[in-house]
Amino acid sequence: MARLGTTTALLPPEGTPAAPELLGPGTTWRLEAPLDLFSRPQGLGLTTQAAAGRCLRIVDAAPSGKRLRVRLAEDGYHGWLEPSHLLGRARASGAPLLPRLNRAVIANRLERVIAFGLAAMEVPNTYLWGGTVGPHYDCSGLVQTAFASAGIWLPRDAYLQERFCQPVAVQPGVTHLLEPGDLIFFGTARRCTHVGLHLGGGHYQHSSGREHGRNGLGIDNLNPRNSHPVASHYRQELRGAGRVMHSHDGSPLPT
Question: Which numeric CATH code is attached to 103-243?
Answer without folding.
Answer: 3.90.1720.10
